[in-house]
Each structure stands twice: as C-alpha cells, then as structure tokens.
Request: fold
Amino acid sequence: MISLGVLVSGGGTNLQAILDAIEKEKLDARVRVVVSNKAGAGGLERAARASVPSVVVDHKAHASREAFDHAVVDTLRAHGVEWVVLAGFMRIVTPVLLSAFPMRVVNIHPALLPSFPGVDAQRQAFEHGVRVTGCTVHLVDSGTDTGPILAQRAVPVLEGDDVESLKARILVAEHALLPEVLQWIAEGRVKVDTGAGRARVRVTVGN
Reply:
C-alpha cells in the first residue's frame, strides 16, 4: 500500500476517481491528506465525504512560491505521505516540493505530451486541428509538463466536438488512467533511474 497526498485547487474529480478506486479495491493506496490552496475547492468536500483529512494552505498567505511549497511539504510530511498527486492543482511547484519528494510527484495532464503542454491543453489541441488527443500521467520535474511519462490514453476528436465536449471526454479518460498508474506504483512496477543526470523510467505492465 502506498500513502498518497493529493493536491487540488478545484472540483477534485480526479481525487474522486482515486477515492473510488480505493473503495472498489482496485487501488492499494490510502489518501493520507488532501491539500488545497483554495478554501472553497470542491475537492475538500469530496475529502470530507470520504473521511479523509484535508488542509487548506492559502498561497496568498505566503510571500513566495517557495514559502508556500515549504508549508505544503510540512503538511504532507506530517501526514506520512510517500507519493504526491497533483489532481487539478493550479500552482507551479518549485524545487522545494520536488526535492522533498524526488520523482514521487505525479501529475495528470489533459493532452498527449509532449504535445500541448501548459494551461488549456484541450483548447490548444482543438484549435490546432488534431484528430487525436488524450491524457498523460507523468512524473513532475522542474520543467513545464516535461517529466518522465508513465502512461498515456488516446481520445479521438469527433466531428461536432467543441472544446467543452472534448474536455469532458478527456476527463473520463483521466479518471480511468490515473488510478491505474497509481496501482502500478503500488505494485512496484514503476522504477526510476536518476543516473547520468536525467531521470529514466521503466514501467512494467501486465502479469
């Protein structure tokens, strides 16, 4: 079993996917704490309904991104977190967090990286005119969505799609893929080699 800390800023639907997978015994993990930078985040309500501890760390109360991340790290460590999941967390993380959990910070991104990194990736893909997009689960490094890729799932862009319908279908794929990859981590199938100055990841899937 792995101990997770989940960081949210909004509605927390990916958090809910994690909690549901745990309840259905498809994910051998425990969410030790949910941390939000916004007091009104819907993810906090989801945590409360699941009897998961939650903490608000207001980024506006800290003088810098680094100071904010120090407070987040202190909270995660106080709850015994081993792996950190960014589930709709709308803050750029700093080396303070990344060094506290080296190659143990997981993000879900709504595009097939390395295409369309950064914000509003679904709109980027739609306006670019691609016929296939999707989502990516990756480890977080100091770049913008540049960390080692763990898994991807394709989502076709359909005739008649608009940005909102595409976002909704990508989100369904996210909800399936993120718990699946976290289970790989729980089973020890994700190996990270940080030699030669660059992290390389080996993922073993299947029996």
